[in-house]
Known about the structure:
With 290 residues, the protein is mainly α. It contains eleven helices and two strands. The longest helix is centred in the N-terminal third of the chain and has 31 residues, at 2-32.
Amino acid sequence: MTTGLQTLILGLALGGVYALMAIGLSLTYGVMRILNLAHAAFMVLGAYLAYWALQIFHIDPLLSVLINGPLFFILGVSLYRLLFVPLAGRPRYTEATLLLSFGLALGVEGLMGTWWTGIYRAANPVYATRSISFGPFYIPEGQLYATVISVGMLLVLWAFLQNTRIGRAIRATMQNRTAAQIVGVNVEGISALAFGLGMASAGISGSLLSFLFPFFPGKHWQWISSLLSLVVLGGMGSLIGTVVGALLLSVASVWVSSILGPTWSPVTFYAALFMVMMIRPQGLFGKKEA
C-alpha cells in the first residue's frame, strides 16, 4: 500500500512536468497542424541555457524560467514567420512542415554539439539532491518545485485560453481554422502567437529539465518520442488530453521503473503509443476523422 502510494506521488509529480513539456507540441499541432519534431531539441537548448546561466552568472534554474520563456517566445514567432509562413497554402503543407522541423531539430542538435560537445551535463542547484519527507512518503525537492512551476504555467495558459479574446481566437482556430478565418480571426497572427507559446513552453521546460535529468545534444530524440507518445494517447491537438496522457504515462513509467528498473521506463511510452494506434488511433480525447 505504501509503495503504491509512493509510486503514485512520484508519478503525478513528474506528470505535471511532462504535461508542460508536451503542451506546446499539442498547441502547435492543434492550431497549425504542425508536428514540430524540433520541440524537444529546443527543450534541450533551454536546458543548456539554464545550465550555463547557473555556472557563469549563478542564476538559479527556477529563475531562468523568467528568461527562457520570453526569449523562446520571440524565437518561436521569428522562426514561424521566417520558415513556416512560406510553406502556407502548399498541397502537402503538413508533410513539408514535418520535414522542415526534422531538419531544424538536426540543425539545433548540431549547433549544441559544436558549442558544448556531446558529454552529459546537469545543473546542480542545492535542492537537486534533497528530498522532502512527510510520514512514510517523500518527494524530491527539485521535482516538487518543478511540478509547482509546471502546474502554475499550465493554469496560466488555461486562464489565458479561456478568458481572453486572443485565447478564444486560438481555441476557435484549433476547432475549425477555416470557420475562424471567416468570422474575422487573424489566423496568420494567431498561428505565429501559438507557435511562440509552444516554443516558450519548450524553453521553460528546458530550465526544469536542466536539474531534473541529465542531458546532452542528442537526448532530444528520446524526449520527442516520449512526448509524442503521451500527446497521441491524449489525442493530437487536445490540450486536456495532453495533460491526462502525461499524468497516466508518468505514473505508469514510475511504476514500471520501480519493478523492472529505470532502463525499462521509456518502454512504457512506446508500448502506450503502439496500443493507442492499434485500438484507438484518435486518442482518449481526440475526434475520429471522417
